[in-house]
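Why does residue order matter? Because the sequence determines the fold. Keep that principle in mind as you read this record.
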Amino acid sequence: MNLPPPVLISTSKALDHYCEQWLTCRALSIDTEFIRTQTYYPVPALLQVFDGQICYLIDPLHIDNFTSLQAVFDNPDIIKILHSCSEDLEVFTQIPGTLPSPLFDTQLAAAFVGYGFSIGYSRLVNRLFQVELPKEETRSDWLQRPLSEKQVEYACLDVVYLYQLFEHLEALLEKNNKSAWFKEECKTLLEIPDQSRSEEYILSRLKSGWRLSPQEQSYLKKLCLWREEQARTQNKPRN
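Structure:
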């Protein structure tokens, strides 16, 4: 695929400039790269945006003001395209500090039109466009600077084909009269960050608690909630 070179955004001033351009777009495909090995919260390393023509790489390590990106995320006239968005939404609670709405999740859309439940991005791209996406950089160090050429290529491909998926799936949803239903389901995805902090969700992660006596279950519940609070406060993994 022949595309212009990606634009690296590494200052708040540059971000403001491009966000003003994005406010005129109908849709933007968005992805994130982050590290989450030694922390409770994901550490944002890169945000990718594609407007249908140019790929933009936002460097959160060098930007301290995301107000203009918040305006893009909150704009009801811009469709924000993601794939399997739950982890990305956790990143967005940190930067830019708001969730993208309206949301178009291509994994959910694929399920609605019959491509299978929880299909991965690479597999869906291969199925629809017969393109094999590289996977080598998935677990690379996204906090390193400068990024390698392979990392940049990987990051860009994650949003370039995402935009094409959107165009294909949006047409199929409309053709099959499922657009309204799909949009309502996408709204529920935006509730994920709040749900993940709920007591019900935290306790649902316990797999074998039912084997214990009622008194032991009570102790386990208290211990689990205490661990969750400590993990958040100290920003350390639950385990």
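The first strand starts at residue 7 and ends at 9.
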